[in-house]
């Protein structure tokens, strides 16, 4: 006898039993369901979004993958521009002047990228981000490629076990990445104060815009929303946190936009500094 | 301004079936459900379809239109061109009974598995007191019309029948979130959500949110906050330690 009373005289419904060991086909044609046969009947261009995601994320991964192994062109001494991908630069291998937090680390052999400590934090923050998870589960892992389009996998356990269980560490990446962002903010301010005094160049404006977008991305984070107020049961007892939660929730609704724009802005900022530092272009100076 | 539209409607039962072609009149201002009714009245008298309010409020007429889970009564014909072929099938995650009607009892089973609202002991039903800002947050979830479109589209069970035992689906994980956020509910629902109702299966790919006719932000406002609460309880040593030291439960 079940302990819950039946609803309105109905007998309690039960799940049809399924032989879980039976070989399963990918798709929706399980015994008992309407036998339709097609993986999807969608007629719109559902494959476009995953395609764009793979392309843009792919470009970003390739670009940063190559870039962090380059040991040059990440610092423009003249205007004190430091690319966010290398900040803070912590080893004796760093270009003179580029490491304003000092160099606690010795010279690094050529096969260790200069940002080997910070890059995993930045990459981990994005990789465990709730939005990026959606993006790459859909587009790289096809799980599902789009809504109501059957995924190719025959078994699925989601984020219930290792390694995907690690996604739950997202808030730690959020804290660590926020610390780095404070340093990036400092870098952006320094970009107005090169050795020659005060100055404004296109580079310093790009650095500021990039930092602003990165703050938008970090503050709109779901973990940030949870920490500021989301975990509370009684907003009425915590008026300030409630207020903060309300603001973060508004930003949070734009998290996807921040994720994409800040991804591109990091690449653009780095590319600009690379181009100036390598002498391909000269910085457009507005003041100084 | 009427025209003849090309419809393909799935007809059959658990034993098998097929998409049948129809040419059917469409008039200005009609929705897909009107066309299905016209088919019943003129060409396919025994076509089975479930509906009730024709106003997007009862959640009965869920089906799939051109492969997308939709309410038949809320899909306007004006969203298609006269040249479009419109394919209508039953929900593909649940057993079919006949034609467009499926057996959605999976959802009733899951609904019953969620423990009910657990108010503080000794407080009678008429004496519940709570503040508006404390209940506000979960009120969004009460807009649910139980159309089960989200349950149907969720790939965890749609593509994997074997997960039906361990996964409650977005609608019922949202119910758990609603209770967990309720100012008077005293049960700890986080472990339950993870261990018994399969929150970990959800990979936050947001199809439930995409199809919800009530535009409830299921993933952003219920599932992700619930995942964060689970992290507090199960995975985050610092929060766990903090709650031991400060002994503050139920903040
Ligand atoms: S977000 Fe989660 S619950 Fe919603 S459809 Fe996707 S996997 Fe299912
Ligand atoms: S949450 Fe939305 S999609 Fe899911 S059953 Fe309720 S109304 Fe339907
Ligand atoms: S950064 Fe995207 S959810 Fe935290
Ligand atoms: S008939 Fe009630 S929702 Fe469509």
* Biggest pleated sheet of chain B: 5 strands, mixed
Structural class of chain B: alpha+beta
Radius of gyration of chain B: 22 Å
Radius of gyration of chain A: 25 Å
Number of domains of chain A: 1
CATH superfamily of the largest domain in chain B: Alpha-helical ferredoxin
* Count of strand segments of chain B: 7
* Overall pLDDT confidence of chain A: 91
Largest beta sheet: strand ordering of chain A: 1-2
* Helix/strand order of chain B: EEHEEEEEHHHHHHHHH
- The 3D shape of chain B can be described as elongated
Contiguous uncertain segments of 5+ residues of chain A: 1-9
Major pleated sheet of chain A? 2 strands, antiparallel
- Give the number of DSSP strands of chain A: 4
Strand arrangement, major sheet of chain B: 2-1-5-3-4
Give the amount of beta strand of chain B, in percent: 15-25%
Helix amount of chain B? 25-40%
Number of helices of chain B: 10
Walk me through what this model shows.
Chain A is mainly alpha-helical. Chain A is 43% helix and 3% strand. Chain A has one domain (44-281). Chain A has eight helices and four strands; from the N terminus they run H-E-E-H-H-H-E-H-H-H-H-E. Chain A has a two-stranded antiparallel ribbon with strand order 1-2. The N and C termini of chain A lie far apart (84 Å). Chain B has 251 residues and is α+β, with helices and mostly antiparallel strands. Chain B has two domains: 3-101, Beta-grasp domain (Ubiquitin-like (UB roll), Roll), CATH 3.10.20.30; 105-246, Orthogonal Bundle (Fumarate Reductase Iron-sulfur Protein, Chain B, domain 2). Chain B contains ten helices and seven strands. A five-stranded mixed sheet of chain B has the order 2-1-5-3-4. In chain B, a hairpin with a 2-residue loop joins strand 1 and strand 2 (16-26). In chain B, helix 6 (170-180) crosses helix 9 and helix 9 crosses helix 10. The longest helix of chain B has 18 residues, at 218-235. The complex binds iron/sulfur cluster (2 copies) and FE2/S2 (inorganic) cluster (2 copies). One iron/sulfur cluster is lined by residues 59, 144-150, 171, 211-214, 216, 218 of chain B. The site of one iron/sulfur cluster has 13 residues of chain B, from helix 8 and helix 9.
């Amino acid at each position: 006898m079940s302990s819950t009373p039946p609803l309105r005289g109905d007998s309690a419904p039960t799940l049809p039993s399924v032989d879980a060991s039976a070989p399963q086909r990918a798709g929706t044609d399980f015994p008992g369901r309407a036998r339709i046969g097609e993986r999807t009947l969608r007629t719109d261009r559902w494959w476009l979004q995953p395609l764009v995601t793979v392309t843009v994320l792919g470009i970003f991964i390739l670009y940063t993958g190559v870039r962090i192994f380059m040991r040059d062109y990440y610092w423009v001494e003249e205007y004190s521009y430091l690319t966010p991908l290398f900040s803070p630069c912590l080893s004796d291998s760093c270009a003179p002047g580029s490491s304003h937090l000092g160099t606690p680390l010795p010279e690094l052999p050529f096969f260790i990228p200069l940002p080997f400590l910070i890059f995993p934090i930045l990459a981990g923050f994005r990789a465990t981000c709730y939005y990026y998870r959606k993006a790459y589960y859909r587009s790289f892992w096809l799980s599902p490629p789009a809504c109501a389009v059957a995924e190719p996998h025959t078994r699925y356990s989601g984020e219930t076990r290792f390694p995907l269980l690690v996604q739950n560490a997202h808030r730690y990446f959020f804290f660590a990445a926020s610390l780095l962002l404070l340093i990036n903010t400092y870098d952006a301010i320094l970009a107005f104060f090169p050795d020659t005094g005060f100055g404004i160049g296109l580079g310093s404006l790009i650095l500021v815009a990039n930092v602003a977008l990165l703050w938008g991305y970090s503050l709109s984070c779901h973990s940030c929303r949870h920490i500021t107020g989301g975990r509370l049961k009684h907003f009425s007892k915590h008026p300030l946190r409630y207020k903060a939660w309300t603001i973060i929730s508004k930003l949070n609704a734009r998290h996807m936009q921040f994720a994409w724009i800040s991804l591109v802005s990091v690449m653009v900022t780095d590319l600009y500094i690379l181009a100036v530092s390598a002498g391909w272009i000269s910085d457009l100076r507005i003041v100084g | 301004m009427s025209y003849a539209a090309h419809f393909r409607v799935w007809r059959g039962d658990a034993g098998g079936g097929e998409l049948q072609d129809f040419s059917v009149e469409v008039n200005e201002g009609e929705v897909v459900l009107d066309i299905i009714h016209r088919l019943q009245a003129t060409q396919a008298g025994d076509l089975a379809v479930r509906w009730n309010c024709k106003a997007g409020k009862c959640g009965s007429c869920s089906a799939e239109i051109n492969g997308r889970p939709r309410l038949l009564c809320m899909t306007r014909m004006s969203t298609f061109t006269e040249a479009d072929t419109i394919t209508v099938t039953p929900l593909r995650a649940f057993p079919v009974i006949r034609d467009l009607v499926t057996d959605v009892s999976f959802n009733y089973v899951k609904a019953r598995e969620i423990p009910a609202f657990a108010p503080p002991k000794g407080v009678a039903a008429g004496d519940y007191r709570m503040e508006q800002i404390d209940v506000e947050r979960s009120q969004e979830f009460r807009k649910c019309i139980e159309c089960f479109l989200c349950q149907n589209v969720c790939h965890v069970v749609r593509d994997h029948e074997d997960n039906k035992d361990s996964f409650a689906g977005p609608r019922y994980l949202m119910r758990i979130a609603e209770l967990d956020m309720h100012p008077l509910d005293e049960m700890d629902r986080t472990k339950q959500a993870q261990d018994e109702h399969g929150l970990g299966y959800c990979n936050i790919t947001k199809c439930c949110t995409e199809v919800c006719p009530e535009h409830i932000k299921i993933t952003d406002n219920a599932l992700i906050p619930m995942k964060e609460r689970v992290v507090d309880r199960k995975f985050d040593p610092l929060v766990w330690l903090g709650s031991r030291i400060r002994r503050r439960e139920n903040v």
